[in-house]
Specification:
Barwin-like endoglucanases; 681 residues; six-stranded mixed beta sheet; 19 helices; Dimethylsulfoxide Reductase, domain 2; Rossmann fold
Length: 681
């Protein structure tokens, strides 16, 4: 007998839950989730009485449609082991008990034969929740003596620069941008990530404020700006130093502030001196008149704020470029007023939050060199990697030198565990796949790094299939390996208390979210000061000087030998959070080119002609879309693209060098130089 579907009046009423997003985005949105029949039905912005102020009544479309991720055909439902060749993704289900047994066996075998460093954990920002990374996983891998992963694929150069200049100092609250007379958005695209800054900037302009955007693309925000500067990728340093030179030369530098609060002033002035507007224009490709206009706006405006994004750091000069940009408010005298100064990451607003497992002092593997380490036993001192444990990451889709990473993952003697929510490109090469919960299915703590807010989040629905949380799985593995101590946190509640401390725990229990000690809108050099040893700005910090081969602020010229004339950039896009949700992108992702560059290569005719994008690292075969909003000489493939979204099964990472930035040992994705040739349909 067929049972008729209930009429709307008979349908079960949804239950309403409030939580927050832990994905890798600055905004940490407050969410309202409708659950119907045990499944997430609708996700929207939480109402004002339970939301933090920045959420602003709307959320991104990615999270709004997260039910497709939760219940899609790629969702992992059960533990499984490989049943074919690596790369095929053929799996056979096994029990959780057997899966844990296998991991314990292989980790123990590797340690007995080669030492604990033959095990490499690989994780990054698949979840930014404070309970899903660096908690039970840190206990497991650090006490086991595994290799230590340097998570340098993003934010390492900018973090090094910010710490060197200011220590951990909170930036300008994003809500305060409404009061800025000038906002410079440099190397960021909030239309794709951090979307709640966009209406705030519009409100600032409605009040008479000016907007400058620095980006090689004419982004949606750049189209609204009063001035758009389009530097060649890797040349932001030159532009920033030219502004410094002019501030000193014209007497617009705040020498009184610098004498009271800064060191290294004369050295920065000396290093900026060669960078005239004319020289900066020649190197960056930005017209002199536009550089001069940017200078005039910045020197004359107060409050003036710089939103420095992470796009600036993704090249050989990345660390110095970020340092030069962050030094501008100190030299230009822009601090000590609301909406004056800079914002990069505001994670420093919660310096009292976190728990650190002591480092065992094992060897450090830079994640940008995972391909080298997995394919060359001499790439790093110590034993070869025999066990790779991947979680909160999709390295095949996100690490540079993609084909080398693929070769490493294809090793038959490498036992790879992938612990994820969906069947990623990396999981196709796994020996063992484990189903993980999403942030809607487990306890967590969500801390914004743009929004100055900390949420306590609870699951809103039961895990799909047999998915388990990171805390549960890593705790069980540590227990089975005999690594736990009597006083270690075990439950979600224990870990929450360990990460938060008693005072923060009480605050979250009472209010549902926590704010920094100084409130959510501190003023730099009034409410917050540098957390350097002497509480001064270090404009030329010794630590960064020692790290950079030519010294801080030294410009490294165009990479390559000229055979590959196009600079390839791989920015974030609205459809994904890095590679998260990449399985949901329909159709093929095109290479974007300026019409002039396409015409030179016979690619301006037809509807999205086929092309081969290549260099010495690899190639991508895909369609081409003409984009006049790109700077000529610059091509674009979005980051986080999955194999199914290109004809060749490769993405921009196949073209990205695994060279490192000047400071911070970060990734140089935007140093990819390529050529493009037409392919016949």
């Amino acid at each position: 007998m067929t049972v008729a579907d209930p009429t709307p009046s008979q349908a079960p009423r949804p239950t309403i839950h409030h939580t927050a997003c832990t994905l890798d985005c600055p905004d940490s949105c407050s969410l309202e989730v409708e659950v119907r029949n045990g499944r997430v039905d609708k996700v929207r912005a939480a109402p004002p009485d339970v939301a933090h102020p920045l959420t602003g009544g709307f959320i991104c479309s990615k999270v709004g449609r997260i039910s497709r991720h939760l219940y899609g055909e790629d969702r992992l439902l059960h533990p499984a082991r490989r049943a074919g060749r690596k790369g095929e993704g053929r799996l056979e289900p096994i029990s959780w008990d057997r899966a844990i047994d296998l991991i314990v066996e292989r980790m123990t075998e590797a340690k007995t034969a080669l030492g604990g460093e033959s095990v490499l954990p690989l994780s990054y920002g698949g979840s930014n929740g404070l309970l899903t990374q660096d908690t039970a996983d840190a206990i497991l891998f650090r006490r086991f003596g595994a290799s230590t992963l340097a998570r340098n694929v993003c934010a390492a150069p900018s973090t090094a620069a910010a710490l060197g200049l200011y220590g951990k100092m909170a930036g300008v609250a994003l809500e305060d941008y409404e009061h800025a007379r000038l906002a410079i958005v440099w190397g960021a695209n909030p239309s794709s990530t951090g979307i709640h800054l966009v209406p705030i900037l519009r409100a600032a302009r409605a009040r008479g404020g000016k907007l400058v955007v620095v980006d090689p693309r004419r982004t949606p925000l750049a189209k609204q700006a009063d001035l758009h500067l389009q530097p060649r990728p890797g040349t932001d340093l030159c532009l920033a130093l030219a502004l410094h030179r002019e501030l000193f030369r014209r007497g617009d530098a705040d020498l009184e502030f610098l004498a009271e609060h800064a060191s290294g002033v004369d050295e920065l002035r000396r290093r900026a001196e060669p960078w005239t507007f004319e020289r900066a224009a020649e190197v960056t490709g930005v017209p002199v008149r536009d550089i001069a206009r940017c200078y005039e706006l910045y020197s004359a405006s107060s409050p003036a704020v710089i939103r420095c994004g992470w796009g600036v750091e993704r090249n050989r000069n990345g660390g110095s470029a970020v340092a030069a940009i962050l030094a501008l408010p100190a030299v230009g005298g822009k601090f000590r007023v609301r909406a004056g100064g800079y914002t990069m990451s505001n994670g420093a607003a919660f310096r009292d939050v976190g728990r650190r497992e002591p480092s065992p002092g094992t060897r450090i593997v830079n994640m940008n060199h995972v391909g080298r380490v997995l394919t060359d036993p001499n790439a790093i001192p110590g034993p070869p990697v025999k066990v790779l444990f991947v979680y909160n990451a999709n390295p095949l889709a996100t690490l540079p030198n993609q084909e080398l990473v693929r070769r490493g993952l294809a090793r038959e003697d490498l036992f790879t565990v992938v612990f994820d929510q969906v069947m990623t490109d990396t999981a196709l090469y796994a020996d063992l796949v484990l189903p993980a919960t999403t942030f809607l299915e487990h306890d967590d703590l969500a801390m914004g790094y743009g929004a100055m807010v900390l949420h306590d989040t609870k699951p809103v629905t039961e895990p799909v299939g047999e998915a388990r949380s990171n805390l549960r799985v890593f705790d069980e593995l540590a227990d089975r390996l005999g690594l736990l101590h009597d006083d270690d946190p075990r439950s979600e509640g224990d870990w929450r208390r360990a990460v938060l401390g008693r005072r923060r725990q009480r605050q979250l229990a009472d209010e549902g979210l926590a704010l920094p000690e100084t409130g959510r809108r501190p003023i730099q050099f009034v409410d917050v000061f540098p957390h350097t040893a002497d509480r001064r700005v270090h404009l030329c910090p010794r630590s960064l000087e020692a790290e950079s081969a030519r010294g801080l602020y030294a410009f490294h010229s165009e990479p390559g030998d000229g055979r590959y004339p196009l600079a390839l950039i791989s920015p974030s896009v609205p459809q994904t959070v890095s590679s998260t949700f990449g399985q949901l992108r329909p159709g093929q992702v095109p290479l974007e080119m300026h019409p002039d560059d396409a015409a030179e290569r016979g690619l301006s005719r037809g509807d999205k002609p086929r092309a081969r994008v290549f260099n010495d690292y690899g190639e991508v075969r895909c369609r081409v879309r003409l984009n006049p909003d790109l700077k000529p000489g610059v091509a674009l493939l979005p980051k986080g693209v999955w194999a199914r979204s290109t004809e060749s099964g490769t993405n921009a990472c196949a073209l990205a060098p695994d060279t490192l930035t000047d400071i911070g040992a970060g990734a140089c994705f935007n140093d990819a130089r390529v050529e493009v040739e037409a392919l016949a349909d």
